[in-house]
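User: Structure please.
Assistant: Input sequence and predicted structure:
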Amino acid sequence: MKKGIFLLSIITLAFATSCTDQENLNSEINTVKNAIVINNNQTQLNQRLDLTNSGVISIINPSTRKNLVTESEQFPLTQIAEFNAPKDSQGRSLQANHVAVNGNYAYVAYTLQGNEYSGAIDMIDVSDPYLPKLVMSALIADTDITSLVYTNGKLVIGGATNSDKNTAIQSPAIVMYMELTSSGALTNNYSTNDISSFAATDVTANSSNYFAVSGDTGSLYKFDNTTKQILGSKAIEDLRSVAVINDKIVTLSGTKGINIYNTLNLELVKSFSTWKDEVQGAKRTIDFIGDKLFVSEGYQGLGVYNMTSGTKIQTIALIPTATTEPDDVVTNAVSVNGDYVFVANGGNGLNVYKSSDQLALIGTVGINGSSNYVKTSGNYIYVASGKGGLKIIKMEKPVTTPSINCSGLPVYNGGQELNINSGQTVGYSGSTAINKANINASFTHCGAISIQNDVNINSGGIFKMYGTLSQGKYQQANPTRFTVNGELQIEGSVVIWGDLVMNSGAKISFLGNDSSITVYGKVTKNSGVTITGKYTGTNL
């Protein structure tokens, strides 16, 4: 392997024609061009979809691993899918380590663990909120894909390549610039810069430029979006992450802490943090809320800094659980969505915090496996679990419906088990997350509600659901059940991950023109059941 040499020239690897419209995106591609294999054979790609752990998930106490009450009741979550990691042409399993999002598309980066090189990029469509689709996958031989970002119809891709096999490359660290089709599809049309050091560890972009950092004896680089030329660089060792905020570029080094530069000329504005990473070359990320900077600091947890003063205002330390190896308890990544901060803590899982003057722990998201990387955008949380692939979690945010005014209904805070007793008339609005529901009278919910286990609408009970409802778990040994003896009114979207049982006398009414129901389990419809209204989805 050749040592990293800073090159100003651009090495063009390929410019090939590719799909330019949605029709071509849906056609089968399985071509090799300059060591890239692009595949959208839907039959093959569908085999990587895994719904085994799909369904409603809860926020749990990180110490006891039991469900939490308090604010977690207003934070409904549904794991909608997992995608198993791809295998390269030699049958080696790759591991997910980064995600970029543009609208309804998520682009996932993969690397090969160990000393050899191999990578991939997946393109996932989340336009169907409960059934994401892997629409395209590109295998990239002899190259690890470490990071990527979407900008102006392109993907900027950081990676490391085998310079012994590619004589046009003098340094393993590379930055690729891939043209996408008008529909966002991956193509073979890309150019590459090699930069100093062994790997480009992170990339970011604004409207005019894109930026990359390389680890070990690397640098911060600024590129022109049009010419792809390197416009400037700043040498700083062991860079792990880079991000743009307004007119500043922020870098994280495993030995030099935080450095903030002016995006115009890369002039150093501020340096702070004495943090040093104990693990050489490990994945770390940063994110922002206003003037607060959140830094994943490995075994030291999450650091929160004031960017103006450089003062560290909070440290979120890590405490191993009884079932977790201490070496696997490490803060790998952080991602912000509104006022919520998601932190990937390896074997300790994925924690979620509410931001105020200080971060307040809501709890740990109840998912299986290690959390090596997290990216959140819109209503979705993407969690990379290395060779475990990628988990996609939907935040059930409130939606409005036209036929009812819900403004006077309170937010639910009544515990994990909802009981509506005979003679009651009860209603709530907003986001609600509970464990089970037993309905014997009139219950109205406006917004988004998730129910992890069984629902019973008993005779005389009526559940008026306006918005979204997600209930149960997918294909359990003892299936979760949604049982209707009374009446269920739906204006919006219902997803039942377990079984639906409609007993004699049950009534399901669909309101409006856009209501839907999807049942992943068994549908039982006994005699005397009434279904009214227009709906799409599972045939009842």
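The mean pLDDT is 89.
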